[in-house]
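Hi U.,

Before I forget, here's the chain from the pilot set. I'm dumping it here mostly so it's searchable later in email.
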Amino acid sequence: MNDADKEPTPESLDEIPETDFSQAIRPNRYAVLRGEFRHAVFLDPALWSHFGSEERVLEALRLLVELAKRETRSVA
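Structure:
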């Protein structure tokens, strides 16, 4: 049995100062920046340099989805 598996002794617990965590809850300070929750997607730097903005990435993805829907309808 190694030291990590042993229970702490009462003496060692007395050495640890008590900390009050009741006021420790911190809201996510970045949550208000995005408004409602959105999923995060990480792009390859080469792709980002091609698009350059979130709006252009979203526009391209929406166009791709629309084209895929058209292709699916024409095959069926």
